[in-house]
Amino acid sequence: MTRVSRIRSLTAAALLATTGLASMGFGPSGHPGRALAAERWDMPVAYPETNFHTENAKKFAACEKDTSKGALELVVHSNGSLFKGNEIKRAVQTGQAPIGERLLSAHENENPLFGFDAVPFLASSYDASDKLWRAARPSLEKLLDRQNLVLLYSVPWPPQGIYAKKELKSAADLKGLKFRSYNAATAKMAELMGAAPVQIEAAELSQALATGVVEGFISSGATGYDSKVWEQLDRWYDAQAWLPRNYVLVNKAAWSGLDGTSKKALQDCAAKAEAEGTARSKELADWYVEQLKAKGMKVEPPSPPLKADLERIGQTMTGDWVAKAGEDGKTIVEAYKKM
Ligand code: PCA
Predict the structure, then answer these.
(1) Which residue from 12, 41, 104, 249 has the fewest beta carbons nearer than 10 Å?
(2) From the CA of 213, how far away is ligand 1's center (Å)?
């Protein structure tokens, strides 16, 4: 602790003692029930308050507070409220936020390696996604380390399918449609299907659907459910294209500044959050689909012609990715195929 911050916390403690607020459980931020924590980290995340990733992040935060005995407290800010989804990584890299959660493949434009989990049909089940993650993690940790970031944990979204208003007999039925994208892969897919990609954050998706800015998209049952997609769209084609991942990242300097107990607690809670979050994603995958059906949506596998189109598009995208991702990409795919 520096001299100035020691004086500051002494002053805060003295102030609380004299006003009697401390005994009422009011910390320096004025929230009831929060004891004086040695360190308090804001944790911006991109997805809604009730989304399973956000709920998992909150459990992770509770675990950290418990395990570090209050030495480090994480405060989760959902739905892009502190930093918008597409600002979170930069905020953590530059130290504006010490920790955050974001969609990994949203950074594919920065480096193709970030897109390993959005290569169509490379890994379309939870088991395969687990293996691919184990194969990719070492290369990814190195890449993040070069970017001033420490990787804590990652949890997959449920499998990706196509939302549409009308029946899709083949990809041709998506021609000219305004198709929402959330990363480079989904934009490329839209283009290859002849649709017009529009990049939109999950936090703005309901609005974009309601105003007609978006007429179709590819995503999980989770995001369809979170966005009340049944208010505008009628169908979900269970394409099982890939299971994209969210990941939790920490600013390296913030990490290095932590005491040993808080660091160890973060690592232990991260391992727990990865296991529990993944189990929850798997458990909820079917539940989301049931909810879409209960709201009157038609849920089906893609028809044979649509499937053939998606496979053809998938092959083009896989070829492009392998070429772009070079040696690192090759290492990941080879390690994955051996598992
Ligand atoms: N939901 C996020 C990313 C993948 C997913 O299933 C989204 O649509 O933005």
Answers:
(1) 12
(2) 17
Q: Is the distance from CB of 248 to CB of 154 less than 8 angstroms?
A: yes
Report the residue among 51, 157, 186, 189 best suited for mutation to probe ligand 1: largest number of ligand atoms under 8 A from its CB. 157
Beta carbons of 242 and 120 less than 8 angstroms apart: yes
CA distance 47 to 59: 15
The whole-angstrom separation of Cα 190 and Cα 196 is 6
The angle subtended at Cα 281 by Cα 277 and Cα 282, nearest 5°, is 120
According to DSSP, the residues that pair with 74 across neighbouring strands are: 41
For ligand 1, mutation pick of 101, 219, 289 (most atoms within 8 Å of CB): 219
Residues 6+ apart with CB under 8 A from 137: 151, 154
CB 218 within 8 A of CB 189: yes
Q: Round to whole Å and give the CA distance between 226 and 24.
A: 37
CA dihedral 71, 76, 82, 87 (to 10 degrees): 100
Which pTM value belongs to this model? 0.89
Please tell me the distance from the alpha carbon of residue 99 to that of residue 177, in angstroms, as a whole number: 37
What would the pLDDT profile of 139-172 be if each residue is shown by its tens digit?
999 999 999 999 999 999 999 999 999 999 999 9
Tell me the two tokens of residue 336: 């994955």
**Closest by alpha carbon to 51, among 168, 194, 183, 157?**
157
Q: Which residues line ligand 1 (CB under 6 A)?
A: 103, 157, 182, 202, 219-220, 222-223, 244
Q: How does pLDDT run across 198-212, given as a tens digit for each residue?
A: 999 999 999 999 999
Q: Is the pLDDT of residue 3 over 70?
A: no
What is the C-alpha to C-alpha distance for residues 124 and 159, in angstroms, rounded to an integer? Answer: 7
